[in-house]
Amino acid sequence: MSSEASGGYRVKLDEDDYIEYLESRIRLLEMEREKLRNQVNYFKHQIEKLLSLPLIEAVVLDVLPDGRVVVKSSTGPSLIVYVANGVNPSDLRPGTRVALTQRGSAIVEVLPSRENIYVRSMEVIERPNVSFSDIGGLRRQIQELREVVELPLKHPELFEEIGIEPPKGVLLYGPPGCGKTLLAKAVARESGATFISIVGSELVQKFIGEGARIVRELFEMARRKAPSIIFIDEIDAIAAKRIDVGTSGEREVQRTLMQLLAEMDGFRPLDKVKVIAATNRIEILDPAILRPGRFDRLIEIPLPDLEARVEIFRVHTRRMKIDKDVDLFELARRTEGASGAEIKAICTEAGYSAIRAGRRRVTMEDFLYAIDKVMSKKRIRRVGHSVSGGEKRGRYSDIFYQ
Ligand SMILES: Nc1ncnc2c1ncn2[C@@H]1O[C@H](COP(=O)(O)OP(=O)(O)O)[C@@H](O)[C@H]1O
Ligand SMILES: [Mg+2]
Prior knowledge:
It is built from 12 helices and 11 strands. 48% of the residues lie in helices and 15% in strands. The chain has a 6-stranded mixed sheet with strand order 6-8-9-10-7-11, sandwiched between helices. A 5-stranded mixed beta barrel has the order 1-2-3-5-4. Helix 3 crosses helix 4 (156-162). The longest helix has 50 residues, at 2-51. It folds into 3 domains: 56-112, CATH 2.40.50.140; 119-300, Rossmann fold (3-Layer(aba) Sandwich), CATH 3.40.50.300; 306-388, Helicase, Ruva Protein, domain 3 (Orthogonal Bundle). The termini are far apart. By secondary structure, it is an alpha/beta fold. The site of adenosine-5'-diphosphate has 18 residues, from helix 5, helix 9 and helix 11.
């Protein structure tokens, strides 16, 4: 009897266990089903995307009184189309880039304007405010740049008469902050040329996918505004040698470079457009850009020597109220290895020191303090660099690259 009872108890226990087991199975299977449902949704979504028809790019020509819009589609014909819900009709003006449905029946999206991308990507200065007198040192470089850029722009007939071709492109190279940009601006001003500049690294990082088109527009703009000087800063960002062109980002950079080379090959040496490029890292450049007819004139812009540093101090203290006892030669002597940009920073820092002390003039002491401050920052950066510096550097291996 008691065994029967205990047997019944055991059966009951098994049943409970079994139910519990089944319930946990149900929960597991429900979870499994939920997971599969998500996967199905995901794939459905993917299939939809893959099956959906591509949109057509078009440019608005006119907005009709009844709300329909005349567009010129990139596939050719001009179309009269409706505007889909969700597109704000007031965004549509002649020239606006839009997307049409595949069958071209309606505008479904307003695209970002290309003109904006160009405007944001390049700086156009009709007359730069830097002249040669604002540059300390670099006399030989100024002379050379005037010969290869200013002279052919101003007097192409001299070259035609003698029968030589000036270089189309000039490459300025050397450590940062030593006057490459300054020099390019000054020669543009002196030549009466429009200064149009872009930065290589921005083409690669900010205007992804637009690099080649921007380069094309750059040269078009230069021809429109000729005489002009195109300045490409940090050209190494688009013209570095690379072993393999693997990622799509690299291919995009490659396309940008190809466009640049094609544009350079496409104009003649005596056309009123000159290209000046600048780099801190000449050793990584693709030799293709240095071939004849491209950037075939190299001008080194080195760190300023003693004499040049005196001149740079003179340039940057010209408009400062400085004490009679300030000895620019002594300042130059104490700033060996400093770039022009650092000398400028020292002058600014010295000015601050005087203001803090409530003085109306900047003293030698202010300058010495400023040198200490700026040069010690530089030393810290150098130490930091040499610690992490397993990388191969070129010929300026002792200089920190920003
Ligand atoms: N040789 C120089 N003479 C006068 N100022 C200089 C000189 N080199 C650099 N500077 C100062 O440093 C700033 C940065 O110089 P920049 O021409 O942009 O250097 P880089 O293009 O070589 O990196 C300039 O705006 C200028 O104030
Ligand atoms: Mg610069």
